[in-house]
Design goal:
By secondary structure, this protein is α+β, with helices and mostly antiparallel strands. It has a single domain (10-134), classed as Roll (Thiol Ester Dehydrase, Chain A). The protein is built from two helices and five strands, in the order E-H-E-E-E-E-H. It has a five-stranded antiparallel β-sheet. A hairpin with a 4-residue loop joins strand 4 (93-101) and strand 5. The radius of gyration is 17 Å and the shape is flat.
């Protein structure tokens, strides 16, 4: 990383809930609402957005811990804003507190940790696993 990330740094991700983001069991009267896995995906990207400006060429991030409370349903077509705030940094390991809101209320909160990694090093580890599977 170019520099140590500062406590309080905020990353944000905005999106509109589309059909691909809704629960896959929305039938028999069940409403089309934002699924928790997609919510987590967007929340993790809000954290990543806080770190991206500080990454060196060849660096990336991977999520290592996610703790989310999904508290309210968000219908298809709603806009959602996810914000992640840095609460702790220990070298390549960065901790976040995050929240998500739709147009009406807070829909989720939680914590997240991500690690800054060397992309080529990770690619080598993945390739080694693939080679083991082929043997």
């Amino acid at each position: 990383m170019k520099e140590t990330i500062k406590i309080g740094t905020i990353g944000e991700e905005r999106f509109v809930v589309s059909e691909q983001h809704t629960i896959d069991f929305a039938h028999d009267g069940m409403a089309q609402i934002l699924s928790t896995p997609w919510l987590i995906w967007f929340m993790e990207h809000s954290a990543r957005n806080a770190v991206l400006p500080l990454l060196e060429p060849g660096e990336s991030t991977v999520g290592v811990v996610v703790n989310v409370e999904h508290m309210a349903a968000t219908p298809l077509g709603s806009e959602v804003v996810c914000r992640a705030r840095v609460i702790y940094s220990d070298g390549p390991l960065i901790s976040f507190q995050f929240e998500a809101h739709d147009e009406h209320e807070k829909i989720a909160n939680g914590t997240h940790k991500l690690r800054v990694i060397q992309a080529a090093r990770l690619a080598k580890k993945v390739e080694a696993k693939l080679q083991q599977r082929k043997s």
